[in-house]
Every structure is written in structure tokens, then in C-alpha cells.
Amino acid sequence: MTEYICRPTKRIKLNESPKWYAYAILTDEYAKEPPLVKVYLSKLENKRQISRVMQELSKLLPVEQMKLQHLKRVRQQDILLFKMNDLNGQTVTEYLVSVGLSAEIVELLCKNIHETDVFASAPMLRWQYELAQLRWPCKFHPDKYMESLNEGSIFSEKQRNFHTKILYLLNEISSELENNKPCGICIDPRTNAVVALATSRTTISPLMHCPTVLIDFVARSQGGGAWQKEFLHEFQNVDENLFNKNKINPSMSGIPSHYLHFIRADKRFEDIKIGAEPPRSKTMIESADQTALSSVGNLEKYGPYLCTGYEMFLSQEPCLMCAMALVHSRVRRVYFQKRSKNGALVSRLKLHSVKELNHHYEVFECKEICS
Ligand SMILES: [Zn+2]
Question: How large is the average pLDDT for residues 354-364?
């Protein structure tokens, strides 16, 4: 087993290494300005007319019907009427008459018509809300969690230190044992223990990109794994006695033996916890709430099931095949270091923003901050 622990003599110590910060890659509805839509406004001659106009408008031309319910109806003497696209060849007057407004109100509204651009959908984050307000008053329901993801305040200092430690281990395994091949680590966030650790094995099969191998090794920790035969030799000679101190859960079968010995033989990694919880009974998994399978709550309640509730740290942004494999495995969070040319989480597309998929994970790009 010592054959794996040959390293260059000069090594960087963990406390000298740069700190890693994880930044959320948000889907476009949070990351971009909402699209604009052209609407008609009417400027009333005085404010006393507003309540009479609104009585008819809210009944006969409600904002909900125009899918503009995120907008307020009135700004000083300006009244929001309808989307320009709704006219369908009619004039504004004809349209207002056609929806059933009284002649008196139509006359009031048509005295001073003008157009403007407003946000076509509701602002999701405060920065979008502030931009939206500049155009037209709108409603806003702040989402604390999404704001913290956007600001980067979601992680505590302790969590950031943990990310740094895991990325450090990831990079050391990749550079010292694997000739800088892409590497990945799966973590159980309940215990912060390493569940599985894998490197790309495309020399064995073109499908064995790092994330697919990592998912397969997580399956091993649950008594499964599609590539049992191919990796048999990597999981032999494990002396479990070596791991009593930092073993959290009984299953270490998601971590190849040479990585286990590398971690254990090196003082820099002495506080790295290892071990996966073995699966519980099948009936419990089947009764789990399928819509919330990715949550840590379900991991707590039902035990490990695929990658439910787990977090993946990858040295490279996954390709589309691997990003989909991570969807199928129901992972909770994906952290990656380097962007890839074919990356499917930010470079080519954001797979996690495809609403039609039946599972979505959170994505973080990790950046080195030198102090
Ligand atoms: Zn891939």
C-alpha cells in the first residue's frame, strides 16, 4: 500500500494555501434582468378620477388577466392600461370599449395615452426589484435564502474553511496520485464526512468521466455500483483498523483503498472524516416524498438513497452527460473549480435551470482568493 504514497518532498501546507470561495451559479431568472414588455398608460387630469376609473378597470381589465399581477396599477396620475400586443389591430379606444368599459371612463382614459416599457415578470431578487421600480411600481416578495445565495452570504466561515479543506484534498489527490486528472469528492453534509472519492477513468471506458465514476462509487457505499468488476482492484486491502479515529459511519466502500491510505498516512488530512451511512430498508425509501427527495431532511429521515442530500465537489465543471447523471442521482449541491469548454452548468448552458427536469441541484463555482 505504500506504493501510493510517493510524493514530492516540497509541499504546500494547508494553512498557507489560498482560500476557496463558493459562488452560486444562479439560473437566469435570478441572474438576469427580467424581459420588458410595452404597455399603454393613461395620465388622468386629476387624482380624484382614480377611484372611479379603478372601479371599472379592476373588474373589466384586471392585471391578473394580462399576467401583469406583479405590477401596481397606479403611479401618481398615471394608470396602467394593458399590453400593446393585446390590441390586435384595434385602436386603444376600440379596445377599451370592447372590454366593456363605460363611455365616460373610456373618454377619461383616452385623453392622454402614452406608452412605456415595464418588466414582463416579477422581480425575484432585490437588485431586480430596484431596477423594476425605476420603470414602474411593482410588488416584491423577498426570498431570504435566494438573496443569501446571490450575495454569497449563505456560507459561514466554518463552512468556507471546510470547502477549502475538501478542495485542498481534491487537488492533492489529483496532483499527487492521479497525474492531474479530474477528481471528485462526495460529502454527506450531515456529518461532513467523505462518502466517495473518484477520478476520471476514461482509459477503462469513455463513459467513465469523473462524476459518473463518483456516482458509481456512492452506489458502492450503498451495496450497489454498475462497475464492480472494473474497479475491483481499487477496493482491495483496506485495513479498517486504520480508520477508527475519523470514521463517522461504517461504510467506506465508496473510497478506493489507495485514497484511503493516502488520507490516513498524511497528517494534513487527519481531521478529514470518512464513511457513509449504509442504506436503510427499501420500504422507507419508497414511501419518501419523491418531490423532496433531494433534501437533507429526506436523507435524515430515510437514509442514503442514490445521492439524495449529498454534495459533490468536482475539480472540473461537468459535461452534459455527467450533469444529467448528477440530476438522475438526485444530488443536492454541485461545487466545481475549473470551468470546462463543454461544461453544462455555466459554460455551454445551465442545466439546473431547465424547469422540465424533475430534479434540480444547486451549483457553485469555487474561486481561489489569495489573502
Ligand atoms: Zn462528463
Answer: 93
